Amino acid sequence: MGKITGNMPNLLLLSKEETIYRAIIEAARLPELNIVTQIEESDIVLGEPNLIRETLSHLSTLKWIQSTWAGVEPLLDPSLRRDYILTNARGVFGRLMSEYVIGYLLAHERSIFERMAAQRNKQWDKSLTGTLHGKIIGLLGVGSIGAEVARTAKFFGMQVRGYTKSSEASKYVDNYFHGQDLLAFANGLDYLVSILPNTKETKKIVDAKLLDELPSHAVFINVGRGSAVDESALIEALEQNKLAGAILDVFEQEPLPKEHPFWTTKNLTMTFHTSAPSFPEDIARVFIENYQLYIEGKPLKYQVDFEKGY
Amino acid sequence: MGKITGNMPNLLLLSKEETIYRAIIEAARLPELNIVTQIEESDIVLGEPNLIRETLSHLSTLKWIQSTWAGVEPLLDPSLRRDYILTNARGVFGRLMSEYVIGYLLAHERSIFERMAAQRNKQWDKSLTGTLHGKIIGLLGVGSIGAEVARTAKFFGMQVRGYTKSSEASKYVDNYFHGQDLLAFANGLDYLVSILPNTKETKKIVDAKLLDELPSHAVFINVGRGSAVDESALIEALEQNKLAGAILDVFEQEPLPKEHPFWTTKNLTMTFHTSAPSFPEDIARVFIENYQLYIEGKPLKYQVDFEKGY
Questions:
Q1: CA distance linking residue A206 with residue B69, whole number of Å
Q2: ipTM (interface pTM)
Q3: Chain B, nearest residue to A267 by Cα
Q4: Fold classified for A94-270
Q5: Less Cβ crowding at N or C end of chain B, within 10 Å?
Q6: Are A10-91+278-295 and A94-270 equal in CATH topology?
């Protein structure tokens, strides 16, 4: 066996959609690249973090892993090696996440579930609908995804608040909050959207105190990670009408166990981690862009800091 | 009784929301304006066309009617007087209509009704969702509302086609079609949206031939007038899966009679003429703007052509 040529980069695909990735990458005719199937030969791995984790210790010549996901938790376990460059998928989910967030915001304003029920009952339901215009949305976390959600919210005439560690990069955020100003950030929001990654600092950041700052007509949306939410506090807020609704795409445990109370919590809508699928055409573009940098010996884009976790 | 002063314009409010309009207009302190309650005294009427119609023949000093609606059908009957200036509400519905159209497009792409059903059945439904990006939307009618829908569709990366009598005013429409090119306009659309007013030319323009040009995954949305649709043809297309869905806000007869087949037609969603409510704050702004022109003796905005019907 052994490498086909001494120095040509060997790419291993570890993805449920290997066939599609192979077709796209072969069609791109990237200079010098071999696509290999032997774990021991590969310098580069493109794939899902959970699949890659299983073979991580056997990748003896590993230099770079490109994740097809934004979240790379399976590779962040402190017991795992960190002697390679890990890049995640970024810049491709913002558009999809924005469609998701705005779609569910409009579903709420337009009472589309209620109107469907009215139709079933043959009721001509003329009750007034709301509008996004002028409403206040607060983004917990404003990275590349949050910036795109902010841009879309601004298009619809919303007021946009952002809570970040320190960055203030998006011009579509009207007011930034940091550190101790979390409760001030949440106070009076019509919509609270968490786009936070799973890190030590974000654990259960959405707790009873934070939810208490929201008006009772507010809706909470989680498209980040389930770990950011105190699930009991959220259930209590919803069941006691302290909150008008929650739209959850992510959960502490996925798939959500059948016995979990979320399935039947009042005004809780769940979407099974489908908000921003990794379409191979999008992710392959990220890989191809990074591969060009790789063979030129330049720093790769979207590098994950193992300590920070994103 | 008689006018309070000889030449000061007298405004009569004929609206279900008279109290709100009175408060807003009084707060605006418009020069010379009296708000009156006597039909015989009024030069100007602001209100709903169906309410105004009942008193139309008694308005002996009538000069101008400002409709709170976009549609003014009740005042267009050829048997009614036309010796006054009729202006309708324009420029205020585009934003609301865009929210409605994009909201229901996203509901379709994101399968939000299907996911709600999955949640009820405690099924972790990971099936892939679609995106608006790259999809083709066709607008039947591109006036001020259509232009705003086009702008919003473009924001989401859609391809936009427009069908108009002759105008090509919106830069957000990629391809315009006119006259005989109706079927070419419809061919291959992912979404067909009718924003047409009720006129002779638009009657049943959405017929079996037009619907046949749409792919079976397409969705039809009607936010214009119900008269533009051949209802039997639409029912047949939906029941035979020639069309994936229809979202109807308007109908030939409103409220829709209980025995109408639309209530239970497959994949048909109805919203009871709620897509773009006339919020008094918005309509009052239109009136105030036109009132300034009125007292300056300048031509009013948004004048309706009684012959054309809009």
A1: 44
A2: 0.89
A3: B116
A4: Rossmann fold (3.40.50)
A5: N
A6: yes
CA distance B43 to B41: 7
Average pLDDT across chain B, whole number: 95
Contact (CB<8Å) A115/B255: no
Q: Domain B95-270 is in which class?
A: alpha beta
Share of chain B above pLDDT 70, in %: 98
pTM of the full predicted structure?
0.89
Mutate one of A98, A113, A129, A275 to test the B interface: name it (highest B CB count within 10 A).
A129
Give the single-character DSSP code of A127. -
pLDDT tens digits, one per residue of B172-195: 999 999 999 999 999 999 999 999
Band the pLDDT of B1: cuts 50, 70, 90: very low
Tokens (6 digits) for B79? 């048997």
Note the CATH architecture for domain B10-91+278-295: 3-Layer(aba) Sandwich (3.40)
- CA B41/CA A30 separation, integer angstroms: 81
A110 vs B128: which has the higher pLDDT: A110
Contacts of B96 in chain A (CB under 8 A): 131
Flag if B133 and A274 touch (Cβ within 8 Å). Answer: no
**Domain-wise residue ranges, chain A:** 10-91+278-295, 94-270
Yes or no: say if B139 and B163 are a contact pair by the CB < 8 Å rule.
yes
Residue A297 pLDDT: 95
Task: Name the 3-class secondary structure at B42.
Answer: coil
